[in-house]
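= Paired protein data =
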Amino acid sequence: MMYPFMTLNDDTEITHSEMKPDGRVKIYIETPDEQDGFHSAVCWLPDYTWEQIDGYSEAEMAFYRQLIRNNAHLILEFSQDGGVLNATTA
């Protein structure tokens, strides 16, 4: 299951999985694009492994890498609590 984490002003959606038994969390980033349909990328925490990068420029990826690094502690916490919506109501 993927949980919503953040929506940016350009309609980019950032979602994350629950924490897997091996301690990893999948982060999925997706941005609608009129020409291509969607741009997307996957990051795995806690090791920051990036894969399946499609359509993003190097500058955009630099932004997303920093954004994920700045918020990794929250994503890891929320991944154990059923997402941000469940964590904030507990």
Notes: The chain is about 30% helix and 40% strand. The chain has one domain: 2-81. Residues 2-81 form one domain. The two ends are 19 Å apart (CA to CA).
